[in-house]
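User: Assemble these into one structure.

Assistant: Restating your components, then the assembled model:
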Amino acid sequence: MPTIKDIATLAGVSIATVSRVLNNLGGYSEETRKKVMAAAESMNYYRNEMAAGLKKSSAHIIGLIMPTSPTLFYGDIIEGLESEAQKHGYGVIIAHASADGINLSEIISLMAERRVEGLVIASMALVQNVITQINGLPFPVVLVSTKSDKSIPYIKVDDESASFDATEYLIHHGYEKIAIAGPNISDQIAGVPRINGYKRAMQKHHLPVDPDWIFYGTFSFESGIQAMKYYFQLSNRPEAVFSVSDDTAIGIIVTATQEGLQVPKDIAVIGYDNTRVAEMSNPPLTAISQPFFEMGAKAGRKIIDAVESNQPIESEILPHTIVERRSV
Amino acid sequence: MPTIKDIATLAGVSIATVSRVLNNLGGYSEETRKKVMAAAESMNYYRNEMAAGLKKSSAHIIGLIMPTSPTLFYGDIIEGLESEAQKHGYGVIIAHASADGINLSEIISLMAERRVEGLVIASMALVQNVITQINGLPFPVVLVSTKSDKSIPYIKVDDESASFDATEYLIHHGYEKIAIAGPNISDQIAGVPRINGYKRAMQKHHLPVDPDWIFYGTFSFESGIQAMKYYFQLSNRPEAVFSVSDDTAIGIIVTATQEGLQVPKDIAVIGYDNTRVAEMSNPPLTAISQPFFEMGAKAGRKIIDAVESNQPIESEILPHTIVERRSV
DNA sequence: TTGGCTTACGTATACGTTTACGTAAGCCGT
DNA sequence: ACGGCTTACGTAAACGTATACGTAAGCCAA
C-alpha cells in the first residue's frame, strides 16, 4: 500500500507537508494542498492507523467484552457504545468471553496489547484476580449491567429497587399471592438483589411470602416453562409472577396458556429487561425496562470523557421504568 | 507503559533477546528466559500491538460492518465471526453503518486505515461506488447474508429456493390458498427472490396466486400486524401465510389470535430466519432456518484462509432447513 | 540597510517492535 | 593450530507516521 512517502515523491513535496495536508494542520499553500490531495487520491491512499497510533500513542479504540451467552439485549449495548464511539472518531473492538469468565483475563490482556483507550465489560461477574488485573491497567474500565467492588466504576440499574417496583406494581394491581421466577441464589448481582427487592415490597404491604413461590432458575425461556409447570402443581398457587427476565416471563405465559390459564386474568406476569420480545408476546408483556442502548452509549461517553479530561469514571445508577402492556 | 527496552535494561539483556523470549523464538538460554520473564512480569508489561503490527504490517484484526437496524440475528453473526477469529488469534472490530448505507464508504475507509486483514459486510445493499471502492481494497472482503455483483464473494442461503421450500412445505400440508407477507419489491436480495420462490412453488403445484395475497411490507413485527389486518378484510382470505421474517410471522400470529382465529387450524404461518423468538411464540413458530452463527464463523475462516494462502475467496450458498414447530 | 516577523515548507527523530545480520565463545575434527 | 559449525546473544535498520525544529523567502517598519 502507498505511504505518505510515495505521495510526497509523486507530489514533489516532503512527507511533513503531506502529513500536514492530510491532517488539515495548515502551513501550506492552496496549490500544494491540491497537489498532495490529487496524489493521495490517485494512489488510493489509506492512512496507516497503526503507524499513526504508535507515534501518537493512542489507538482511538474502545474495547468491549461480553459473555458468549445468547441474550437479546447485547445488540443494543453494542449499538449504543458504537454509535457514541463513532461520533467521536473512535472504533470499537469486541471480544467474547465465556460466560464463566475463564478466559476473561487473557482477553483483557489482548485489549491492553491493542492499546485500547478504554474498556467496557458487560454483564460479567469478576473474580478477584481479574479485579486486580483491571486495577493495574493504564486505561479506564467501566462495567455495564454488572458490578464488582468499589474499585471499578459501573453503569447499571438498581436491581433491588427495580424488583421492588415490579413487585409493588403487581400489588397495586390487586394481586397478593405473588411469586418470583428465575433468580439464582449464587448470583450476587442479578439474583440476590432481586429476591431482596421482591421480599421488601411484600413486607411493606404486609403480604406473606410462601417460600414455594420462589422458583430458583436461570434467565432462559426454558426456565420459565419449568417455573410455570412447578407453580401449576402447587396447592397454594400464585396469582402473579415477577420474572427475572423477559424470556422467562414468556416461558411462563406460553406454558400457562397451554395449560388453559388466561393471562392476565388467571395469572399475571411482569418481565424484566424489556427486550424486543416483550412486545411480541401474546399478550404483550409488561416489563421493567433497562435502557441498554443508553447504557452502552453512556459507557462510551464516560470513557471518552475520562480519556480527554484524565479524570476517573464515576459509577452511575440509571433509572428503570415499567413499560405497561397487557400481561398484568 | 513499559517497553521491551525497559525490560531489556532491567533484565540486563538486549531488546532483541527480550523480543525473542517474548515471542518464543528460541535462541536463548533458560537462564536468560527466566530473567526476561521475571522482568516483564514485574513491570506489568503488555506488548504494543500497534508497534508490532506496524513492523509486521499486519494488525491481526478482522472488520465487521452491519446495519444499525434492530434485528435479532446479528448477535449470532458476530459471535460466529468472533469465535472463529479468536481461535486464530485475530480480533474483531465492528462498526455500524446506517441501514441505507449512506456512510458505508467512510466506514470502509476507517477499516482500511486500521489495516484490517479482511472485512465482513453483513446484510447491506451495496451501491456502485461502494463496490468500486471494495474492489480497490488490498484485503479480502466477504458479504454475509447479502450479495452484490460477481466481483465480491458472499455467504448466504438461496432465498429463492428457501422461499420455494417454505411455500411447498405449506402445500404439502394441504394448504392451497397461500399468501406471502412482508417482501419489498425493491429489495433485490431478500425481496424479489422470495416472491419468485413463492410463485414458482405455487405454479409447480398448479395453484392460483391471488395478487391480493402478496402483502408488500418490511421485516418488522408491525408489518406482520398490518399484514394480518389486511388479510382479514379480504373476501378471498388465505389459509396459510409464508412470512419473510420471524418477527413478521409473529405479528401475524398475534393479530390472528386476537381476532379469534386459531393458529394453525384457521390460519397457518411459516417464518423465516429461525431467530430465538421463533420458539418463544405461541404456538411455537415453524420457520426456515438460516445458520447465522455458521455464516459468521465461515466468513471468518474464509478470510483467515484467504490471508494465509493468498487465494481469493469463493462464494458459498449455505443450506437452509425447515425447523418444524407448531404453527403449521 | 538591518532586524524581526510570518509563511511555507524540509530535515530528522521518535514511537515500540521485529528481524537480518554480525560476532564472540565454545566445541569438534583434522 | 586451524577451519568450520553451533549457540547465544547484541547491533542496527526498518515499518509509516507525527512533529519539534530549522530555514529560506518574502514582507514590513525603522
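Residues 145 and 156 of chain A are 5 Å apart (CA to CA).
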